[in-house]
Amino acid sequence: MTPNLLDNDLQQQLLQAARAARLQAYAPYSKYRVGAAVLDDQGRIHAGCNVENAAYPEGVCAEASALSAMVLAGSTHARAVLVVGTGGAWVTPCGGCRQKLREFCAPDAPILTANDTAMGPRYTLAQLLPESFGPDHLNTP
Ligand code: THU
Q1: What is the pTM of this model?
Q2: Sheet strand arrangement including 45-49
Q3: Model pLDDT, residue 88
């Protein structure tokens, strides 16, 4: 499987994991629950949810939470990401999460969106974060 292709079975597994994670979200302030699931380079899926805080800026997004779970499990390569938001408007990763994804995803990594009932638009990381700054910039000779 090439990195930017995602078969239907894996997509369904990501969807299921992200929806289940969304149910665990702690979002008493915004009421906007988010679940995310990342597929790592070993074919494993790691999920995360948003965790808000009374000191608002200290909240953690679902994508960041899922990436932390992936790193904890020993992987630093995400092959695909699926994010499930709340309501009819499709969630797309916030700016900060796009940069966090950039650390662990190839430019052509698929970033899928969904809600409770359907799949939404699909992007690549490069579409969401063009001309991005990443680890290669720091690999100076
Ligand atoms: N949120 C995420 O978890 N991921 C995103 O990419 C968009 C925003 C969360 C942060 C906050 O808990 C809530 O959604 C409303 O902004």
Answers
A1: 0.95
A2: 45-49, 35-40, 78-84, 110-114, 119-124
A3: 87
Q: What are phi and psi of 89, to 5 degrees?
A: -80, 130
For residues 60 and 50, the answer to whether their CB atoms sit within 8 Å is: yes
pLDDT in tens, 26-42: 999 999 999 999 999 99
73 lines ligand 1 (CB under 6 A): no
Q: How far is the CA of 18 from the centre of ligand 1 (A)?
A: 14
> How far separated are the first and last CA of the chain, in Å rounded?
33
Q: Is the dihedral of CA 99, 101, 102, 107 positive or negative?
A: negative
* Ligand 1 center–CA 92 separation, angstroms: 9
